[in-house]
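Box 3.1 A note on notation
Throughout this textbook, protein chains are presented in two layers. The first layer is the amino acid sequence; the second is a token string describing backbone geometry. Keep the layers aligned when reading.
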Amino acid sequence: MASRGKVVGEFNKGKVDKLLPPEAVDIGARHRIRRFLENMDAAILEANCEVIGRELPNLNRDTFLRMAVRVAELRADYLRAGIKAADSRHPDAAAVAELARLRAAYEEMQSVYEAAERVIERGYVKLG
């Protein structure tokens, strides 16, 4: 916001180092932090591969396609109910409740599919 040609809240920037904790300024500490985070990423990858591989051994193209189709079907159900409810300016309570139920089912299944996509993107499953 401007006032008489000046920016309200204007300040002089100092050295960025003044805003960082001492560990972030120290190059050795930054390397240790980066190594720690890289090791954690590797451990998380290994844990996810192990757990998902053990708990869901049959993930494959058909599994993901079935989920994608289910999301599309639930989206269509939700839209169909919304179009039907739009016939009335004030849909009755049952129609509104049905819309809420269908939306919840669609959104939950969509979230599951997005989680499955992340599993693939991050390499937690072996695709054949």
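The CA atoms of residues 16 and 98 lie 55 Å apart. The chain has two domains: 20-55, 58-128.
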